[in-house]
Amino acid sequence: MRDELFCSLFYITVVTVLGISGIDMAHKAKNHSSPSSPEPASLQVEDVSANSNGPKTAEILIDDDQDDLFAEATEEVSLDSPEREPILSDGPSPAITPVTPTALISNRIEPKVIGVPSMFERSLDEVEEEAGGDLFDINISVSDPEKVGDGMNAYMAYKVTTKTSLTIFNQSEFSVKRRFSDFLGLHSKLASKYMHIGYIVPPAPEKSIVGMTKVKVGKEDLSSTEFVEKRRSALERYLMRTVKHPTLIQDPDVIQFLESSELPRAVSTQALSGAGILRMVNKAADAVNKMTIKMNESDAWFEEKQQQFENLDQQLRKLHASVEALVCHRKELSVNTASFARSAAMLGNSEDHTALSRALSQLAEVEEKIDQLHQEQAYADFYLFSELLGDYVRLITAVKGVFDQRMKTWSKWQDAQVMLQKKREAEAKLHLANKPDKLQQAKDEIKEEIEEWEGKVQQGERDFEQISKTIRKEVGRFEKERVKDFKVVIIKYLESLVHTQQQLIKYWEAFLPEAKAIA
Amino acid sequence: MSSSFLPLSEEMFQARSVSVDLNNDASLLIDIPDALCERDKVKFTVHTKTTLGTFQKPEFSVSRQHEDFIWLHDTLVETEEYAGLIIPPAPPKPDFESPREKMHKLGEGEASMTKEEYAKMKQELEAEYLAVFKKTVQVHEIFLQRLSSHPVFSKDRNFQIFLEYDQDLSVRRKNAKEMFGGFFKNMVKTADEVLISGTKEVDEFFDQEKTFLLDYFSKIKDATSKAEKMTRSHKNVADDYIHVSATLNSLSAEDSTPLKHLEKLADLFEKLRKVEGRVASDQELKLTELLRYYMRDIQAAKDLLYRRARALADYENANKALDKARLKSKDVAQAQQHQQQCLQKFDTLSESGKKELTSFKGRRVLAFRKNLIEMAELEIKHAKSNMALLQGCVELLKSN
């Protein structure tokens, strides 16, 4: 019932989308013998050989998100989960499978060629070991924002510098120029490859149409400078979190992003592109799915963790709001202190008693220095404390997303079981029927189908177990990282507060003799 | 806040005065040891200790309301003999509007905070309420002390009645209102600036004073309002620390993972906000109150200048009248006498005015010195406590 509802809803929306991005989709659909197999599957053969990075063993997965909707009708491209093959995803994220109206689907399975499992496992362990110890040496900085172009087509180019001793990179220190949509494109690819198998992919910084427009239009004021700085800092944190992930850092897309001087433009990240709209539709689809799937949770760990993350999410949002208020008030304090400093200076000028006049002028100077101090503290409040909390609010959304993926995987497995049951019943019916001539052909067909669905059920179960395993590991890693991350940033923040107090002492101690000198 | 008896401690007493050198003369010592807050009305207990024979008893206390102080001030202003003196500025009406409004807002937002958070905010507001209370007591006390330490005012009959009369003063107040109707005061305010800046000044001293006072008044008024804004922002930051601390507490309570340092952090912010709160209120008392008080005092000095200017105008008119009378040869003696009177009045006014303004400057400079020193010392003290708290927490976090 759910699926039917979905099919119709999706069909209608997609027809509209097709209209918008007609060429794109039609082109994709044309390229494949089986309309349901996603694009990168066919590309991979050419790409791997052309890829200068070589076929590094990495985890890539073709996204089969769409299969939910077409469970009854589509083919699944199934991969045996633990085994992966190197794939360089080119262009838009394969989360967007070509759209096919149910009537066109044929009944062919395309089993995938698999890579080398054991080799993969070993290298993953190695990297994880590196990640755990001090050998995980990589540092990324995002700097030198530069405006390129003019008017509405202008954009900011950022320099991304990587310093590392890891062998998966060609050099130990290198930089490239990237723009914001490149980062979004990277995230989009990583999300489509890893999220549905249970990896927590760090979210990219958010878009801001208002902020960017100001920059494009060339408004060189404080707010646009602040906006660029905020974005630069966010991009840096995003990359650092991504490369700290032992699996993601090995991804060819990540390596290409950091290393290669030219990067194909990620057009699909634009909000109003065909891909963008499909993304929105997917999001809606996911939301409906979440409401209708009632999972039988057999594992208490998952239930507990989900609840924990729910609570954490609420508390972090609240804390974030309080810290944002603090930033705002501290900025106000800075402004008001500056205003008072000016007023005190005027008062000092007006004062006719010489010593008092000098003391008042000194007071004005002290207050001016203090207003600077408050402003700097407000920056620290924001960039250290507030942004940390904002990042984690978004990260937790990603974590919750991964739990949802597990639910979807479970649901797929269940659906396969239902299908198998239906086919078995159909077979039974055939055996009871009395039509000898057509019977044998039908019986054979049904047998084939049953085999197919048995395979799918097995695959579904394997997928579910794998994603559960991955999530457990990921959550463990996430919690460790979180503790470390918070501790480091909080210490830095407290040290900023200490610095402010030290400066205050210095300023007031310098002022005291001036006040005492009033005679 | 309903009826509450608030005895004021010795420490509060010391911290209070923005003015200096008051209440040193043992022959007449006045203070306000406590006050009662009843809804909108504050009842001050005025306590007098005296060796002067003019009083009936050597030590006594009476209960007075704000309106009684205003009555006393107005009678002084209206007394001719005091025209050449700076009348100490009347204390402003007790204003609990700000904390009351905040308390109301807090009540509305109660549902959105934890119990602990709400309790802390309430505590903060009660402290604010108390601070307003302390300030109003201080400012009423200083008014009386200015009078008692002045050679002329201390002998004023109405002042004595104010201190001694053990009945309600409201009857007297009503009579006074009927007599003067507040008309005079309003007139003074509007004509003030024009008259002072208009009259030609022959005396160099007064010329300088006039320029100085007019300019200084506008500057100190501006500085007062900017200082107020600054202090308010400071309080807002301290309040934000409360919310941060409360949420950190909830986080650490719910979080099963070893984020023990969240608890320490929550504790730290709670302690920090107390210090920040003190910084804000000390700044208020030492800086904002100082500026506010002297703004009012400068207004009183300007009023003196006005009265002198009016006396000068009267004298000049009397001169003109005398000339006219001489021309017409009619009522010359009368006109001459009037002119002499005006001249005398003007001269006494100028003489006492000069003395007053000079001592006023001395008083002002001393008060600024005292308060600026105290403010700087308190800022240093609070910054040092903040630093100790912060460094302690950093050490704790690093060692884990």
How are the SSEs placed, and which strands pair?
The complex is a heterodimer of chains A (519) and B (400).
Chain A: H1 2-20, H2 22-30, H3 39-50, H4 117-132, E1 138-148, E2 155-164, E3 173-179, H5 180-194, H6 209-217, H7 222-244, H8 252-259, H9 274-292, H10 300-350, H11 354-432, H12 436-516
Antiparallel strand pairs in A: 1-2, 2-3
Helix pairs in contact in A: 1-2, 1-9, 6-7, 10-11, 11-12
Chain B: E1 4-7, H1 10-16, E2 28-38, E3 41-50, E4 59-65, H2 66-78, H3 97-108, H4 115-148, H5 157-164, H6 170-180, H7 183-198, H8 204-254, H9 260-328, H10 332-399
Antiparallel strand pairs in B: 1-2, 2-3, 3-4
Helix pairs in contact in B: 2-6, 3-4, 4-8, 4-9, 7-9, 8-9, 9-10
Provide an overview of this structure.
Chain A: Belongs to the sorting nexin family. Chain A: Its main location: other. Chain A has 12 helices and 3 strands, in the order ααααβββαααααααα. Chain A has 519 residues and is mainly alpha-helical. The longest helix of chain B is centred in the C-terminal third of the chain and has 69 residues. Chain B is elongated, with a radius of gyration of 27 Å. The N terminus of chain B is likely disordered. The interface between A and B is large, with 56 and 58 residues.
